[in-house]
Amino acid sequence: KIIKEYEGEVWCISKHLLAASMRLLEVGAKQHGMGNKEEAKDLFQKAYDLYSLFWGLNMKIINTNDIKKIDDNALNKQDAEKTGFMGKLRILVKKAIDCCIE
After folding, report:
1. CA-to-CA distance for 27 and 36, rounded, in angstroms?
2. Residues near 32 by Cβ (< 8 Å), separated by ≥ 6?
3. What is the pTM of this model?
4. Where would you tag: which of 2, 59, 66, 70 has the fewest CB atoms within 10 A of its CB?
5. In this structure, how many other beta carbons lie within 10 angstroms of the beta carbon of residue 86?
6. In Å, how far are 50, 61, 65, 73, 97 from 55, measured between CA atoms?
7. Mean pLDDT by groups of 10 residues along the chain of 102 residues
């Protein structure tokens, strides 16, 4: 009922913002329980920021006219290699292993 536009980028962004916000709250609660108060506070702040972005987007405070779909394998519009998240992770692990071998 909150997300009026079921098609397109607003729907997709909204669900990811809420999911990420919830996950940050869960991790923040765990850190708080472990006694890591500053870490928990930082995670709670990030969760609230994402939650605020969700509401800004759905109350039409944030302009979505410039949101454009990028290549499916690109992480952002500046991504020149377009290998996706797993491709980037493979490269990172390879560099770490190569460093250890040397």
Report:
1. 11
2. 40
3. 0.64
4. 66
5. 9
6. 9, 8, 17, 28, 43
7. 70 89 97 97 95 88 75 71 76 79 62
